[in-house]
Amino acid sequence: PRSRTRIRVRAMAEDQEEDAPMQDAQDPEEELPELSLDIIDLIKTAQAQHGLRHGDYGRYRSYCSRRLHRLRRVTGCTHGKGRYAKRPLEPESVRDARQLMLPLFCAERAWAFAMQLKRENTQQEARPHYHLLARLAKAAEWSAKLAALCAERADQRTDLEAKAYSAFMHGNVALERENWAPALASFKSTATICTELARVTMAEQAALYKQVAAEVEPSIRFCSYNLRRLGGEEVSDETDAMGDDVDGLAGASDILRSKLEQVLAETRAKQAESLTEVVVLGERIPLRTDKTRLGYSAVQQALLEVQRCEEGGGKEAGDKADKGDDLLALYDKLFVACNDALDSVRLELRETKKREQSAKSGAAEASLLTLQAALLWQKLHHTARRNLLLLGRLREGKGPAGSRKRATP
User: Fold this and answer.
1) Is the dihedral of CA 323, 328, 329, 330 positive or negative?
2) Inter-residue contact 135 to 110 (CB < 8 Å)
3) Which of 89, 124, 145, 316 has the smallest set of CB atoms within 10 Å of its CB?
């Protein structure tokens, strides 16, 4: 029994700052002190240590539930034993900064559940999507309660962090519902608050604020892009339209990435519709199937990106090694597009051969063979260019990814 008690005590002591009991209730007439809580630092640390570094939202959600249970027990904000009795947090009853963590981790738990549903709903089913929207709305509701409590009981920095956090949660709800104007206003509010806080705080804290501002920047650009595309209000002349490179948005959220993938698919489909024929060695070759048009359009897009990188359109502050790494990655992307296009052409060629032989079918087969040869030439040509690039890097003492280790003979 004694060893079992020790194990239970050790498990309950995960967060040492929550083990200390709250102070005794003060006199209601006594002036309540201002509370301070590093909201952004707290959630970023918790997310990095409990699953989100690897995108495991289920693990982070479980951690938030355990943390809430410990916080309610330590602060005395339980809802009774046996029969449930709701005890809402009121500003006059908040006397400890740990009480502000209750709405914060309630919002984090609801947000983590929504992101978990987003990851699992790969088939875009309706019922999980409704559940996802409900969880995001609940996260926004809890963040609004946190902002209201901090406005009355916390210091100025904590109040501003709570406002930025609440605006971010409301922006996520509007973004998922495709309400672009409210989402843009919320994300711009978060970016503005974090930018101003980074300007007036210490260097360690300023880095966190700059990180949050950088994370919402892709969402701001995406919302502005959709407002322009739908003929909405012109928000800012400095905001550029979103590009086609989804992989380049390192700080983008999962909600934004899914929206961008849909827009990218729609854009490529429209480009493929207008691409009805191509010219190979002076011969006009029709593109009959949608799959072939999409494949050829992806090859042309990849070739354009390779050409831009070779002409020096890579990273602005990158050196020669960084440009070589980018070019190798673009070559890999080009080869994948070429393989997909070749597969679609071969499939169409097999279907053409199965049909009844005629002069018309013979001409179609000949044009498909010409298109296949053109795609193969593009693939082999750029394979040779990639091999020459790798050979040059090896002569300079660099590996394929910029490593300086020499291969032993």
Assistant:
1) positive
2) yes
3) 316
Q: What tokens appear for 237 in the block?
A: 């002349």
Quote the tokens at residue 353: 């051969």
Q: Which amino acid is at 4?
A: R
CA distance 248 to 254: 14
Cα 308 to the center of its chain, rounded Å: 26
* DSSP secondary structure letters along 248-308: T-TT--HHHHHHHHHHHHHHHHHHHHH--EEEETTEEEE--SHHHHHHHHHHHHHHHHHHH
Show the tokens assigned to 322: 């960084």
| Residue type for position 390 | L
Q: pTM value?
A: 0.61
The DSSP call for residue 406 is P
CB 279 within 8 A of CB 287: no
Q: Residues in the chain with pLDDT < 50?
A: 1-15, 17, 23-28, 233-252, 313-318, 401-409
CA distance 256 to 184: 12
Q: In 123-154, which positions are buried (b, 16+ CB within 10 angstroms) versus exposed (e)?
A: eeeeeeeeebeebbbbbbbbbbbbbebbeebb
Which tokens is 157 given? 């920095």
> Kindly report the CA angle at 91 between 90 and 94, in degrees rounded to 5?
90
Q: Tell me, what amino acid is at 217?
A: E
The DSSP output letter for 201 is S
What's 247's DSSP letter?
Answer: T
Sign of CA dihedral 347, 353, 354, 357: positive
For 188-214, what is each residue's pLDDT tens digit?
999 999 998 888 777 778 888 999 999
DSSP 8-state symbol, 237: T
CB count within 10 Å of CB 359 equals 7
